[in-house]
Design brief:
The complex is a heterodimer.
Chain A (H helix, E strand, L loop, with lengths): L3 E12 L2 E12 L3 E5 L6 H8 L7 E6 L2 E2 L5 H6 L2 E4 L11 H9 L8 H11 L1 H5 L10 H13 L5 E5 L7 H16 L3 E5 L3 H7 L2 E6 L2 E6 L7 H9 L1
Parallel strand pairs in A: 3-8, 3-9, 6-7, 7-8
Antiparallel strand pairs in A: 1-2, 1-4, 4-5, 9-10
Helix pairs in contact in A: 3-6
Chain B lengths: L1 H31 L6 H14 L5 H24 L7 H23 L4 E2 L9 E3 L5 E2 H23 L1 H11 L1 H6 L4 H26 L2 E2 L3 H16 L4 H21 L8 H15 L16
Antiparallel strand pairs in B: 1-4, 2-3
Helix pairs in contact in B: 1-5, 1-6, 1-8, 1-9, 1-10, 2-3, 2-4, 2-8, 2-9, 3-8, 5-6, 5-8, 6-8, 9-10, 9-11, 10-11
Classes of the chains: A alpha/beta, B mainly alpha.
């Protein structure tokens, strides 16, 4: 735990009277990939939004590099070293690809290594380099997802949060996205991944938490990716 | 023929003024999704400042009026609107009414109902170009001021990082914040720009209507707001074009209507806007969309 980049401790989120996240605690070590899987409404995306300060936590704490993020606004949390690739991508359709990337730099703490980061990201996602001047809304779903990940990486985060990166994508495009994630992991980026495709995520991550009803029900390693019975029991238990 | 041309020249000139009002409304709406009914009070504040500084050198008076409108814009944002940022839209909307009526009461108490005269640009009513179509200096100044401010705004939005942040915030405020766009900064900038446009409007209006009363800014704002809605308020360019169109139509209708019927001028303009919104609900200049159920 000493080198944990992200620590979530007893996190609780309520939407009115409805509890969405109930006492979630997890940690992500430097360079680790950790997955949150679970059925719809399990509280996975809400957990990410609470980490980002986009929804208010009613209890608990989130720390990055040992510093609490409690009470901070999303724009401050980005500058604390957390970047989110949101569910549905939320690229700015009316802006060009290059302008979307420039927005990713807004949350950067400094410009050190910016040229190197751009070169790496263009290599990682050639489509982003190729279609710089094109309105982002004209990209395909898979291309938009690559742009959303590239944009988040330009903030040079200590931890990258990914919410459903495979949502709505064709299987071949999902493979492309996960191939890019492998290379991002190899680059040493710490990742917390929320994903509906549970087996894919569990196999990909160093450690996975199965959420249901707002709680973490099970912790799994990649070697358990084929253990569907245990996973189903956690999903519906 | 020269009568039509004269009418169009006057219309374009008034359209530039209304476009400036529209841009102030649309900038704030873009980043806050809030129709600021108190915007007219920024114009009134700038108008009174021009009246109070009428004996000063003109540049100093203009600078003070810009300062007054910007300061009032920033203060109302900080005190009245920022605390309500997460509140339901109706609450924030009612608050803009409350701020507007409160400020009108303040103007009434401080300056009285008779109004103050701000005739700092009266000399610009002289003819610049004579002939069948008369062009006054104020017409040229209105076009130049409108073009300069709108052009400057386009450069700011398209060539600077803060402009890019404003465009992103206007498109998807939450997504922009999640990328690190500072909400307070872009909102305050929108109010500052609205204040600058309001002060410019006050200066241009006083050239032809030097009497500043407590409802000086409200009247022009209501008409410009109609133009913003008719143009398409989701887009700064459409909203500005809508404001321009309302100014143009108001001026042309004013020339066409017999003198005795000019009291009905706003009714004609509003009727035209109703027709526009029935035919193009998203706005006159916005791309047509399929019909959608609203309830």
């Amino acid at each position: 735990m000493a080198d944990a980049v992200l620590e979530v401790d007893g996190l609780e989120v309520r939407y009115g009277a409805v509890p969405a996240v109930r006492g979630v605690s997890l940690h992500v070590g430097r360079g680790e990939v950790v997955a949150l899987v679970g059925p719809n409404g399990a509280g996975k995306s809400t957990t990410l939004l609470a980490i980002m300060g986009a929804v208010a936590a009613s209890a608990g704490d989130v720390r990055v590099g040992g510093r609490s993020l409690r009470g901070r606004r999303p724009e401050q949390i980005v500058r604390s070293g957390v970047a989110l690739v949101p569910e549905g991508r939320h690229i700015f359709a009316g802006l060009s690809v290059a302008e979307n990337l420039r927005l990713g730099m807004v949350g950067r703490r400094d410009d050190d290594g910016l040229d190197d980061d751009l070169e790496w990201i263009h290599g990682l996602f050639p489509v982003v380099a190729e279609f710089q001047a094109r309105p982002a809304g004209l990209l395909s779903g898979g291309q938009q997802q690559q742009l959303a990940i590239a944009r988040a990486l330009l903030a040079r985060p200590d931890v990258l949060l990914l919410d459903e990166p495979s949502l709505g994508l064709a299987p071949t495009v999902v493979a492309t996205v996960f191939d890019a994630l492998s290379r991002i992991r190899a680059h040493g980026v710490t990742i917390l991944l929320v994903e509906q495709r549970a087996q894919l995520a569990v196999a990909f991550a160093d450690r996975s938490y199965v959420m249901n009803g707002g709680e973490i029900r099970l912790t799994m390693g990649p070697e358990q990716a084929g253990d569907t019975e245990t996973m189903i029991a956690a999903y519906f238990g | 023929m020269s009568g039509v041309l004269q009418s169009l020249v006057d219309g374009v000139s008034l359209g530039a003024v209304y476009a400036l009002v529209a841009v102030g409304l649309a900038l704030v709406f873009g980043v806050m999704r809030l129709i600021n009914f108190a915007h007219g009070e920024l114009i009134t504040a700038a108008g009174y400042t021009l009246a109070l500084t009428a004996s000063w050198p003109l540049p100093a008076g203009i600078a003070m009026s810009v300062l007054a409108a910007v300061a009032l814009a920033v203060v109302t944002e900080r005190i009245a609107f920022r605390p309500l940022r997460g509140a339901p839209p109706a609450t924030a909307l009612v608050t803009t009414f409350a701020v507007g009526f409160t400020l009108q009461a303040v103007w009434l108490i401080v300056f009285g109902p008779e109004g103050r005269t701000a005739d700092v640009l009266a000399d610009l009513n002289r003819t610049a170009i004579g002939g069948d179509v008369v062009i006054r200096w104020i017409t040229l100044v209105q076009l130049a001021a409108g073009g300069t401010i709108l052009g400057g705004l386009v450069l700011l939005l398209n060539r600077t990082t803060i402009g890019l942040e404003m465009r992103a915030a206007a498109a998807d405020f939450r997504a922009a914040r999640l990328l690190g766009v500072r909400a307070d900064r872009v909102i305050v900038l929108a109010f500052v720009l609205a204040g600058i446009s309001a002060a410019t409007v006050a200066l241009l209006i006083t050239a032809s209507r030097p009497l500043v009363t407590p409802t000086f800014g409200l009247e022009v704002t209501i008409l410009a707001l109609v133009g913003v809605v008719a143009g398409g308020m989701d887009n700064l360019a459409y909203a500005t074009a809508g404001g321009f169109a309302v100014g143009l139509v108001t001026s042309v209708f004013g020339d066409i209507l017999p003198a005795g019927d000019r009291v009905f001028l706003p009714a004609f303009v509003f009727a035209a806007v109703i027709v526009v919104l029935l035919v193009r609900p998203a706005g006159l200049f916005a791309p047509a969309r399929g019909a959608t159920e609203r309830v």
